[in-house]
Design brief:
Elements: H1 2-20, H2 39-60, H3 74-77, H4 83-96, H5 106-115, H6 122-132, H7 142-153, H8 162-169, H9 176-180, H10 185-232
Length: 233
């Protein structure tokens, strides 16, 4: 009985309190704003996702090239050239990469062609880059630079093109047959296989040369010690 009486008192007190409080007018009561997440939390993630989806769509439609993920090794990828030829190409590439950023841009290519004695128009220079520009960045990486000589050796360049002029006038000898243009692409591939064996031979020769130098160094040291002991005795 005591609990029921206590419950009735609490109920009546609650009702009296609610009646005493002023009831807000629904027409004048302010509308509480709905809590929102910070703009950066959703905006950044959605824009990043949108950019990724747009790039993927461009790659699927062939409008852009996917970013390369593998490490480029010219000696394994361009086996048709000897180690000396690749080193000569790299030296030439670095000579004209005046910006030292690992690329030859339009103005650097312009200077290169002028130095080689085959100046090109602005449109001609852009076409030269476009012909081997696999990542569509408007400049030549070292790999794309090597592609020029690969295509020249395979006979895939037009005789009057600026790239053929570059391959012919450069100081790099990519084999007489290659620069003049192979008549058959498969014939060029066979030449590449034969050059591949030369590549391995060059590595062996370099190792043998280092061994020979080490032996000569030890012989000179031994002779010097013997001569020194003779004078000291």
């Amino acid at each position: 009985m005591a609990s029921e009486e206590l419950a009735r008192k609490l109920h009546s007190r609650l009702a009296a309190t609610q009646e005493a409080e002023p009831r807000p007018d629904p027409e004048q009561s302010p509308v509480r704003p709905t809590p929102q997440e910070p703009e950066g939390a959703c905006g950044d993630s959605s824009s990043e996702l949108s950019a990724k989806l747009t790039r993927r769509l461009d790659i699927n439609e062939g409008n852009t090239a996917p970013r390369p993920t593998r490490v480029f090794n010219p000696y394994t990828e361009f086996k048709e050239f000897s180690r000396k030829q690749i080193k000569d190409m790299e030296a030439m590439f670095r000579r004209y990469d005046t910006g030292k950023d690992g690329f030859i841009d339009l103005m650097e290519l312009k200077l290169m062609m002028e130095k080689l004695g085959a100046p090109q128009t602005h449109l001609g220079l852009k076409n030269m880059i476009k012909e081997v520009d696999e990542d569509f960045d408007g400049k030549l990486s070292f790999r794309e630079f090597l592609l020029i000589f690969r295509r020249a050796a395979a006979g895939e360049l037009q005789e009057e093109s600026g790239l053929m002029a570059l391959a012919r006038l450069s100081e790099i000898n990519v084999s007489t047959e290659g620069v003049m243009g192979a008549k058959d692409f498969f014939e060029a591939k066979m030449q590449a296989l034969s050059v591949g064996s030369k590549f391995e031979a060059e590595i062996r020769e370099e190792k043998e040369e280092r061994k020979r130098q080490e032996v000569e160094k030890k012989q000179r040291q031994a002779a010097f010690k013997q001569l020194q002991s003779t004078f000291c005795s």
